[in-house]
Design a protein that fits this description.
Blueprint (H helix, E strand, L loop, with lengths): L1 E5 L2 E4 L4 E8 L4 E10 L6 E6 L5 E3 L7 E6 L4 E6 L8 E10 L3 E5 L3 E6 L1
Parallel strand pairs: 2-11
Antiparallel strand pairs: 1-3, 3-8, 4-5, 4-9, 5-6, 7-8, 9-10, 9-11
Length: 117
């Protein structure tokens, strides 16, 4: 299984971006999908997660500004980011709990989000 993230870029504070992450492969199912981020000099942190049933969880720092969603038919997770702040600048990684032959956890390659003040 491979996760391919896209949608990062440079945006001014207050702007919006939408990240996408598609899982590809064969004979698998996905439980939880999520987004994490890592800013320079900091540890990777949770941004948001969503279960296959649509239950969501957000970091306090993004609640009310970011929305996670998924299209189960396309094995794709999205992160709509609004009201972006400079402190949202980071590399954003998608993550998925996948069941194929056995349960596995996968990471995407990361996409850079830069918010200028």
């Amino acid at each position: 299984v491979q996760l391919q993230a896209s949608g990062g870029g440079l945006v001014q504070a207050g702007g919006s971006l939408r990240l996408s992450c598609a899982a590809s492969g064969s004979d698998f199912s996905i439980d939880v999908m999520g987004w994490y981020r890592q800013a320079p000099g900091k540890q990777r942190e949770l941004v948001a997660t969503i279960t296959s049933g649509g239950n969501t969880n957000y970091a306090d720092s993004v609640k009310g500004r970011f929305t996670i969603s998924r299209d189960n038919a396309k094995n794709t997770v999205y992160l709509q980011m609004n009201s972006l702040k400079p402190e949202d600048t980071a590399v954003y990684y998608c993550n998925a709990d996948v069941w194929a032959i056995a349960p596995m956890n996968y990471w995407g390659q990361g996409t850079q989000v830069t918010v200028s003040s």
